[in-house]
Design a protein that fits this description.
With 232 residues, this protein is of the alpha/beta class. The protein is 31% helix and 19% strand. It folds into 2 domains: 140 residues, TPP-binding domain (Rossmann fold); 82 residues, SIR2/SIRT2 'Small Domain'. The strands form 2 sheets. It has a 6-stranded parallel beta sheet with strand order 3-2-1-7-8-9, sandwiched between helices. It has a 3-stranded antiparallel beta sheet with strand order 5-4-6. It is elongated and about 55 Å long. The relative contact order is 0.19.
Length: 232
C-alpha cells in the first residue's frame, strides 16, 4: 500500500534548538549584520570578502552542531509516511538526522557554485570558502545561497509538493518570508494541517489547521504519536 504524503515545511525555529542563530528573533543575526551588506548580490560585488567571511562563520557553526530531536522525529516518520521536507533553512541538519527527501528553498550552505554558471554546484567538506577557489571553468565560487532579491528556483517544485500533500506540517517559521510563506495556502483546504511554533498567529481563515504553540522539539514530541495514530 502506498504511504500517505506528509509534507514538512520547516523554518529557522527548527534548527534554533540545535544552536543555530536565527535571523529575525531578538539577538538574531540581522541585529549583527545588515542584509544589504552580506546577503545580496550587490553585497557580493561590493565586498565579497565580508560575504565570504559571513558564510564561512555560518558554515563553521553548522559543522559544530548536531540535529535535534525534532529533526530526528521528522526522519522517523519516514517509517510511516512518504515524507517530503521543504525547508527555508540552509543547514544540512534534516539530512544528517536521516531525512531522505529534502528540498532547500534558500540554498545549501555546505554547497558552493560558480559565479558564471549556476549549473556548476559543488559539495564543500570544509568550512572555509576563499578568494581564488574556482569552478572547473575558472570562475570564482560563491555560496550556494538564494540571496535577497534573487529568484527562488525551487519554489515551483515546493508548490507542487504542497498541492499534493495528504498531511502538511509547518515547523518553526514565522510565515513572514515570501514567497515561501505562501506554501500553506497551496495545500488543499480539506487536508489536515499542523503549525508548530511558539509565536502568535491569526490564521483562523485556514481550513483544517491545528496550531501547536510550542518549540520545534516539544511540538514534534506532541505531534509524532498523533500522526502515527491517524494511520490506524
Amino acid at each position: 500500500m502506498n504511504k500517505k504524503k506528509l509534507v514538512v515545511f520547516s523554518g529557522a525555529g527548527m534548527s534554533a534548538e540545535s544552536g543555530i542563530s536565527t535571523f529575525r528573533d531578538s539577538g538574531g543575526l540581522w541585529e549583527k549584520y545588515k542584509i544589504k551588506e552580506v546577503a545580496t548580490y550587490d553585497a557580493w560585488l561590493k565586498n565579497s570578502d565580508l560575504v565570504l567571511d559571513f558564510y564561512n562563520q555560518r558554515r563553521k557553526q553548522i559543522m559544530e552542531v548536531q540535529p535535534n530531536l525534532a529533526h530526528e522525529l521528522v526522519a522517523r516518520l519516514q517509517d510511516y509516511y512518504d515524507v517530503q521536507v521543504i525547508t527555508q533553512n540552509i543547514d544540512n541538519l534534516h539530512e544528517r538526522a536521516g531525512s531522505k527527501k529534502v528540498l532547500h528553498l534558500h540554498g545549501e550552505i555546505m554547497k558552493v557554485r560558480s559565479t558564471q554558471d549556476d549549473s556548476l554546484v559543488y559539495e564543500l567538506d570544509v568550512w572555509e570558502l576563499k578568494k581564488g577557489d574556482k569552478c572547473e571553468k575558472g570562475f570564482q565560487l560563491r555560496p550556494h545561497i538564494v540571496w535577497f532579491g534573487e529568484m527562488v528556483p525551487e519554489m515551483g517544485n515546493a508548490s507542487l509538493l504542497s498541492q499534493h500533500a495528504d498531511v502538511f506540517v509547518t515547523i518553526g517559521t514565522s510565515l513572514n518570508v515570501y514567497p515561501a510563506a505562501n506554501l500553506i495556502h497551496e495545500v488543499p483546504s480539506h487536508i489536515p494541517k499542523y503549525l508548530i511554533d511558539p509565536g502568535d498567529f491569526k490564521l483562523d481563515y485556514i481550513d483544517n489547521l491545528s496550531i501547536i504553540k510550542a518549540t520545534a522539539v516539544k511540538g514534534m514530541q506532541l505531534l509524532f504519536d498523533k500522526l502515527i495514530s491517524e494511520l490506524q
